[in-house]
Design goal:
Elements (H helix, E strand, L loop, with lengths): L9 H11 L1 H18 L1 H4 L31 H36 L1 H15 L3 H12 L3 H27 L3 H8 L4 H9 L4 H25 L10 H8 L8 H28 L1 H4 L3
Helix pairs in contact: 2-4, 2-12, 4-5, 4-7, 4-10, 4-12, 5-7, 6-7, 7-10, 8-9, 10-11, 10-12, 11-12
Length: about 290
């Protein structure tokens, strides 16, 4: 059953419950630091992430270059910060696109009985393929670019949201307040958007944090395989791809963007778990 969306002062209570859990609080702090660093990259980055300096190539981490330099002498710390801008942006855009597609498919399948069978079979067919394989196929068909990676991953993760929306809509459409709205002659579009969709916001918010994490990992995987973002664009995935040939001699080129991926994904997962616990009344009573 869908979880009602908290309103007013209850939101502050939910935030306090989340902050009371140390793992969730630390995760929120890590996310704020990562997002803040990405937004403030032009001001806090000590070097130009694109500037070549062959004289300083493959320098180990030190006072001048905190995370060392890569094979072209570029500062790894600056590239990690700038890479976070695109990696986090890709994750955010994938969540938006997957939400639009997933909500549309899920509401159609759950509210309109005639379309349920067709849409459900489409969702099942898309989920039958492993995420990364379907993403590779879509990017290969569309062409490697930042926009096409977002489109491919949005399509890949839309069925996850569609299944949640469909299952919740099947329950909500039979509730008394929806039946009352129908009896009063409320237009179908208003019932779907106001009465049904409004009650889906909490589970969608929780699932969105998980998809955000999956999208960051998937983008890194696609870039590592060379089918994602162009190699000259600094993302965490492209940095790991560029540094793999120096594994064992200049590990820092791969280690630091890898740590950034781990921190962001783990933090998003823990925040998602915290949201799920505080938004579910049954779990909230146990906190």
């Amino acid at each position: 059953m869908a979880i009602p969306t908290p309103a007013g002062g209850e939101r502050w209570q939910l935030l306090r419950l989340m902050a009371a859990r140390k793992t969730v609080l630390v995760s929120l702090i890590v996310l704020v630091v990562l997002v803040g660093a990405a937004l403030l990259a032009p001001w806090i980055s000590p070097f130009d992430p694109y500037k070549l300096s062959i004289m300083n190539r493959l320098q180990a981490p030190g006072a001048a270059h905190w995370f060392g330099t890569d094979d072209f002498g570029r500062d790894v710390f600056s590239r990690v910060i700038y890479g976070g801008r695109l990696s986090l942006l890709v994750g955010f855009l994938v969540v938006l696109l997957a939400s639009v597609l997933g909500i549309a498919l899920g509401l159609t399948a759950g509210f309109f009985r005639g379309a349920d069978k067709v849409v459900s079979r489409l969702i099942d067919a898309m989920m039958a393929f492993p995420d990364i394989l379907l993403a590779i196929a879509l990017v290969a068909a569309l062409g490697p670019s930042l926009l096409n990676v977002v489109i491919a991953l949005g399509i890949v993760y839309a069925p996850r949201l569609a299944r949640i929306v469909r299952a919740s809509t099947l329950v909500i459409r039979e509730l008394p307040f929806v039946e009352a709205a129908r009896a009063l002659g409320v237009p179908t579009w208003r019932i779907v958007t106001v009465h049904v969709l409004r009650n889906l916001m909490s589970p969608l918010l929780v699932q969105g944090t998980f998809i955000f994490a999956y999208a960051i990992l998937a983008e890194a995987g696609l870039s590592f395989l060379g089918v994602g973002v162009s190699p000259d664009i600094p993302t965490w995935g492209t940095m790991i791809n560029a540094g793999q040939q120096y594994m064992g001699t200049a590990d820092w080129i791969m280690v630091f963007p890898g740590i950034a991926i781990v921190l962001s994904v783990l933090s998003l997962q823990l925040v998602g778990d915290g949201l799920r616990d505080v938004l579910d009344p049954r779990l909230r009573n146990e906190l």
